[in-house]
Amino acid sequence: MNWLTEPSLQGSLYILAFALIIYGLMGMTGPRTAVRGNWIAAGGMGLAVVATLLSGMADAWLIVLGLVLGTVIGVPAARKVKMTAMPQMVALFNGVGGGAVALIAWVEYRQYDGFAEQPLHVSLATLFAALVGSISFWGSLVAFGKLQEILASRPLTLGLAHRPLTVLVFLAGLGCAVGNPLGIRSELLIIGVLVFAALFAVLMVLPIGGADMPVVISLLNAFTGLSAAAMGLALDNTALIVAGMIVGASGSILTNLMAKAMNRSVPAIVAGGFGGTASAG
Amino acid sequence: MLLANFAILVLAGFVGYLVISKVPNTLHTPLMSGTNAIHGIVLLGGLVVLGSGADGVLNKVLLVTAITFGMINVVGGFLVTDRMLGMFKSKRDPAERER
Prior knowledge:
Chain B: One of its GO terms (biological process) is NADPH regeneration. Chain A is an all-alpha fold.
């Protein structure tokens, strides 16, 4: 069964997989072909998973555990959710995707002792993935909380200090991320990136009103795609790069289109909660 | 290797841009949900890192969590998109038949 573990077989299956994903996505842009397109993309995803597993896996039981847990949690959640609760469900699914990126980046950092002996691009791409993945995870959780009315859906702020604090927290996260390529190998650094990114995401989404939330979710969706593409660069995995970047690019365009359809602009929405433009809560 | 990957990154960006640029307003939400399912591909990252051998309990716990998260993203995303589109179809079909 040696040919099964051949890297070129995995590479070929990846090409087929993302061809299916792109073709499926093209179908989803028209009302008639959308349902079929969705399942074609899902087929491509399944193929990509199988191709990855072919290369031979250590800890097979843990992998099966993860896959089964994900299915057992994901399928009922998607089946039972009410149509009216769809947006927050999408936010939640988007969030766990971003969370997965952040966790993988953290483990990569631990495994390679802060990338002391790795090329620079691995370090940069992983830290970017950690930063953006964490923003996506926590931002989506706040969006979920607001739409589910666990948090007030009206804009929440800390008053005048809110905007400077948000910028400060983001710069702190960025500072931690820059520390590693400059030679600091401590694990506190990546934890700093994850925590500051989380704080930034919470501060960013809290002031945004419920009506603008779909646009924000779409923005966070694009973020998760970008972080997945960065993770693909770090892991040298073509399927991650292609699928992640397609979502990153299409998600950004889609965010813009959605904002335009509401007669709003993306910067106005993101800054809107700071008392700039009034947004309907 | 890095340059080839960058080339793929740039081209994929253009593919994403071109695919979406002609989408009708009504399909914005299902399309967002569909692309949301696609970035669940990070699942592969978890599989690769855990499958190539992770040491330490914490690393393994984090990776199993990541795989679980990725899998929720994938299966949940595609199912939810299908349900959204299903609702769409029942509304649209009569109109289409009239034409």
